[in-house]
Design goal:
By secondary structure, the chain is of the alpha+beta class. Helices cover about 35% and strands about 20% of the residues. The structure holds flavin-adenine dinucleotide (FAD).
Length: about 500
């Protein structure tokens, strides 16, 4: 039997590194294991990433962060979903809300019941049955409360926050629980006879040895990519956006409890409301526009004055073919990148950490845990990729070369299958533990203007007028529950 792993070395101190450190301090710190984090202030972090999805609340709770102090420390605000403007067609907008939408009747899917009756004027839109969407549109928010099937119990939410402040908060938390931080640039990596990373060398002739290495070095992927030689699988033929300009502005008007993603000629713009400022950024495809035009478009679409200089970023959509090789596990940008359209990157860090802990290689590095980790994470990346591609593929826009390209490009086979099933009878299946739920897929598909030609005939088993009555009641319930919530301010 191999001896248990006694030293964990986290390389990199961005959001990924400090999330891993805080979680390791909470769950791996048995008094006999050392947890060390190495970061270089001179290199710095990517410095963006402000919108999240609901599972972040579970992560914060598990590592022991109190919500009120977390929101204070990070300038955080609640997020009920994402509003997409100009995606299906130039003059359209829709909300992808968090939480469930409607509820089933006698075990039959809500969206199928809605599809059957949607032509009746009294039924309203699919979004009328999502408490998060109704509350978001009214600028109102209250945490979920009551029976999970009640309108307020069906609500789910995430946060917008300042990622730099979040990393600082996590750092304090992790250091207080015994994580050792080492400042310095890594200049070399030593490997043992098996090819595992044995130690990293730092400027100033220092050396840090370890048994398990978490590569959180950002786009550089110093250990997994550069040292272990794990290839990058490029997905830019499906997701051509490869640049961003980020620019904070002064807070303007009342806080909105949602992120906004506005489509432009060759990409899209995010708007993320924080307590003390608004985060903005233009994500665009360099094959379809140039940096100066992209900056002009961003400047022309701000709702307040900038409070800093623009920050320019370059990236490529895709992921490493394995996220765990030898004794190296990559978390965050070191493992892959998907544009922030559905705010999934920080979630992928969290998911990577929790899967790693679930498969922790406590007695050495067998292939069983490693292969399972790579399979699970690979599936998760691919499912999120398909969901993001959907926003482009399901456009009816053809007004610019960019939209003509994404609207006609070849799609992954997995997405083709999902689209075909939905187009016919509105059927959607969620595979394994894929992140986005059926209501999320339906909200985006319908929001982009894909209306199925039929519905699942199984819902004909219920009396139409009885279902209509139940839907009317549900809809009234969501409207009343949202109206009773306080305005966000
Ligand atoms: P980084 O922040 O780059 O950190 C890398 C760390 O490694 C740094 O500490 C650096 O000093 C260290 N390092 C690197 N090389 C060395 C070396 N040689 N020696 C020592 N240390 C080293 N995610 C979301 O969830 N929501 C969003 O809204 C969102 N928006 C985004 C917008 C854009 C334009 C981009 C590009 C990303 C966005 N993301 C978003 C992703 C998010 O920013 C990242 O997932 C997150 O910040 C994690 O980054 P990281 O810690 O992996 O890398």
């Amino acid at each position: 039997m191999n001896p248990p792993i006694r030293s964990v070395v986290i390389v990199g101190g961005g959001t990924a590194g400090w999330m891993a450190a805080a979680a390791a301090a909470r769950f791996l710190n048995d008094g006999q294991r050392t947890i060390t984090l190495i970061e270089s202030e001179a290199i710095g972090t990517v410095g963006v990433g402000e919108a999240t999805i609901p599972p972040i609340r579970g992560f914060n709770a598990r590592i022991g962060l109190d919500e009120a102090s977390f929101l204070r420390a990070t300038g955080g605000t609640p997020k009920l979903g994402i509003e997409f403007v100009g995606w299906g067609a130039l003059d359209e907008r829709y909300m992808h809300p968090f939480g469930t939408v409607g509820h089933e009747i006698e075990g039959l899917n809500f969206h199928q019941l809605w599809l059957r009756l949607r032509d009746r004027a009294e039924i309203g839109s699919y979004g009328d049955y999502a408490i998060a969407a109704v509350a978001a549109r009214a600028g109102r928010f209250a945490p979920p409360a009551g029976d999970p099937r009640s309108p307020t119990g069906q609500l789910d939410y995430a946060y917008h926050f300042d990622a730099g402040l979040y990393a600082a908060l996590l750092r304090g938390h992790a250091e207080a629980q015994g994580v050792t931080r080492i400042e310095g640039r890594i200049t070399g990596v030593e490997r043992d006879a098996r090819g595992h990373v044995a130690a990293v060398r730092l400027e100033g002739d220092r050396r840090v040895a370890g048994e398990l290495f978490l590569d959180c070095t950002g786009f550089r992927s110093l250990l997994l990519g550069e040292t272990m030689g794990v290839a990058f699988e490029d997905w830019s033929h499906w997701l051509p956006c490869d640049r961003a300009i980020a620019l904070p502005t002064a807070r303007q008007g009342p806080l909105l409890p949602y992120t906004r993603a506005t489509a432009h000629d060759a990409g899209w713009q995010w708007r993320i409301p924080l307590q003390h400022r608004t985060g903005n950024g233009h994500v665009y495809a360099s094959a379809f526009t140039d940096d100066e035009t992209a900056e002009r478009v961003l400047m022309a679409n701000l709702d307040a004055a900038p409070t800093a200089e623009p920050r320019r970023l370059s990236f490529r959509a895709g992921r490493r073919t394995k996220l765990w090789a030898g004794n190296v596990v990559a978390l965050g940008l070191a493992g892959g990148f998907l544009e922030p359209l559905e705010s999934t990157s920080i979630h992928l860090i969290q998911d990577g950490i929790s899967k790693l802990f679930a498969l922790f290689p406590d007695q050495g590095f067998g292939t069983v845990e490693r292969d399972e980790y790579n399979r699970l994470m690979g599936d998760q990346y691919a499912a999120i990729r398909d969901f993001i591609i959907l926003h482009y593929a399901a456009t009816r826009r053809d007004d610019t070369p960019f939209w003509r390209h994404v609207g006609t490009m070849a799609l992954p086979e997995t997405l083709i299958r999902k689209l075909a099933l939905f187009r016919e009878k509105g059927r959607i299946f969620r595979y394994d533990d894929e992140l986005f739920t059926v209501p999320s897929w339906v909200a985006v598909l319908l929001g982009q203007g894909i209306v199925p030609s039929g519905y699942d005939p199984i819902v004909d088993a219920l009396d139409a007028d009885r279902v209509a009555g139940a839907l009317r009641q549900m809809r009234r319930g969501y409207a009343a529950a949202a109206a009773a919530m306080p305005a966000l301010g």
